[in-house]
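Re: that chain you flagged

S.,

Sorry for the slow reply, it's been a week of failed gels. I finally had a moment to sit down with the sequence you sent. For the record, here it is as I used it:
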Amino acid sequence: MRRTARPLTGTALAVAAVGLLAAPAYGAGATDAGGLEVYPSSAVPGERITVNTTACGDGGTAAGDAGAVGGGSFTLAPTAHEGDAVGQFRVPPGAQPGTYEITAVCAEGGRRARGDLVLTLTSARGQVHPRGSVKTGVGGALGPDPVQTAAGVAALAVAAAGGTWLLHRRARGDGI
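Prediction finished late last night. Pasting the structure tokens below so you have them in one place:
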């Protein structure tokens, strides 16, 4: 046991040393400048989202990315409010619930800002109700054509009356 413990310990230390040496190479790209404010931070599919950051400084612009949730790319433009850069995107109606990272990269300096968007099926305003019809192939009780509905009701009434008449004849002994 003692013979195998030393080589395994040496291997673990070597792997840890390589991991520490490789860590700076991962962060060599854009620097993380801080937060990206996402409003509302909890949304439903189809809702418009506004994001802003002060990471780009006064008059700075940024390229936003909401691809994780399916919102694509958008632009953050400078505003007069305390050096904020603001942008908007819309969450696609078919987006699934979950937590998604939204990012923005400043045009100058390549600073990166990150924020989270929580996607749910309910909003603070209440339950989101589905819209539209369900395509089952059967149709509704009161379909779009009242003539077809009336014909279906009449066919059921004739079948019920015929069945009742046959059962009554059988009960009297007349036969079928």
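What I noticed first: The mean pLDDT is 76.

Talk soon,
D.
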